[in-house]
From TrEMBL:
Cofactor(s), by name: FAD
Pfam families membership: Pro_dh (PF01619)
Gene Ontology MF term list: nucleotide binding; proline dehydrogenase activity
Cofactor: how and how many bound: Binds 1 FAD per subunit.
Chain residues that bind FAD: M132, Q160, K182, G183, A184, K196, T221, H222
Taxon lineage: Bacteria, Bacillati, Bacillota, Bacilli, Bacillales
Coiled-coil region: none
Residues that coordinate or bind substrate: K97, R283, R284
Reaction it catalyzes: L-proline + a quinone = (S)-1-pyrroline-5-carboxylate + a quinol + H(+)
Name of the protein this chain belongs to: proline dehydrogenase
Length: 302
């Protein structure tokens, strides 16, 4: 793992900067990868993407919340996003992080917040994706998914290929709509592959398994090597287009996003918005230091 990556990972977890940044507005170039700070701005961005045939998963930014009032506020904001999707007839669903809804405060409290969100979305036929966070939150997040799945079927989640246990998880949740990713957090050697080649190899293995055996696969990556591989694999194995989609983050590789949509593949852009952009943005910088160009450019032009 490089020093640069470690440095940005450390910044992403800094509590003072995370909470301070909420008052700054979008800064440091974050506006290129975050679709505004409020629902109105986000809806406009989603409409633009829908117009060109791209569907969207909306993330009301926030994570690592430690106060009940803040988690309740986040719950209400996400209910607001669900209403906005319904009222504006957006081609969109929700991505959320359990720690934003109180997972670090009290399991039962978080479960009830999520139940309210999933129930409301179910009423409007809107899908809810549980993003997966760091290893410490994995098991309780899956416990909540198991619990809510007894009542609702509009739930899916994420499998992170860097974990040694990801194949086991994938098989357990193969009847779910799953997003498969490489994994964004810093995890120790006893739990996760560290080498890029190992992660890529496992990523491909999981994608192929879920395409062949699973319900619906969201392949979430900016890596054109993986995307090209998946295209060939799907063709060779007659995987119907309705069984998978590609996903990328808002603001990244826009030309490639459009190209894939134009080629007729289902494409879904992950659209984050809100004041709590700092941790998300720092993780993006950790993944790809070239994104630093964004920062430099914005500093000199704004
Ligand atoms: P990388 O391994 O970062 O890049 C591989 C290669 O792709 C690069 O060497 C380069 O050749 C090319 N490339 C990559 N980016 C660019 C670019 N911007 N421009 C040009 N070429 C590029 N992680 C989680 O842990 N939990 C989640 O819930 C989660 N959800 C996600 C949802 C979406 C929609 C996406 C896209 C990612 C999500 N992630 C999540 C993050 C993910 O785990 C990875 O950390 C992140 O996507 C970086 O890996 P990558 O596959 O995009 O490619």
């Amino acid at each position: 793992m490089s020093l640069t990556r470690d440095f940005f990972m450390m910044l992403s977890q800094n509590k003072v900067l995370n909470s301070g940044a909420k008052r700054w507005g979008l800064k440091l170039g974050a506006q290129s990868v975050v679709a505004g700070t409020n629902i109105k701005e986000m809806v406009e961005s989603v409409k633009e993407l829908n117009k060109v045939g791209i569907s969207v998963t909306i993330d009301n930014l926030g994570e690592f919340v430690f106060e009940k009032a803040e988690a309740t506020e986040a719950t209400n904001q996400i209910l607001g996003v669900i209403n906005a999707i319904h009222e504006n007839k957006l081609d969109a669903h929700i991505s959320l992080k359990p720690t934003q809804l109180g997972l670090d405060i009290e399991y039962g409290f978080c479960l009830e917040n999520l139940r309210e969100i999933v129930a409301k979305a179910y009423e409007y036929n809107i899908f809810i994706n549980f993003d997966m966070e760091d290893y410490g939150h994995l098991q309780p997040s899956f416990d909540i998914i198991d619990e809510l799945s007894k009542e609702y079927d509009n739930i899916g989640t994420v499998i992170q290929a860097y974990f040694y246990q990801s194949e086991e998880l994938l098989q357990k949740y193969e009847n779910y709509r799953l997003r498969i990713v490489k994994g964004a957090y810093k995890e120790p050697e006893n739990l996760a592959y560290q080498d890029k080649n190992d992660i890529d190899r496992n990523f491909i293995k999981l994608i192929e398994y879920h395409l062949m055996n699973g319900k619906f696969t969201s392949i979430a990556t900016h890596d054109h090597h993986i995307i090209d591989h998946v295209k060939k694999f799907a063709k060779k194995n007659n995987i119907p287009q309705e069984k998978f989609e590609f996903q990328m983050l808002y603001g990244f590789r826009k030309d490639l996003q459009l190209k894939l949509a134009k080629e007729g593949y289902n494409f879904c852009t992950y659209v984050p918005f809100g004041n709590d952009w700092y941790g998300y943005f720092m993780r993006r910088l950790a993944e790809r230091p070239q994104n630093l160009n964004l920062v430099a450019k914005q500093m000199f032009t704004k």
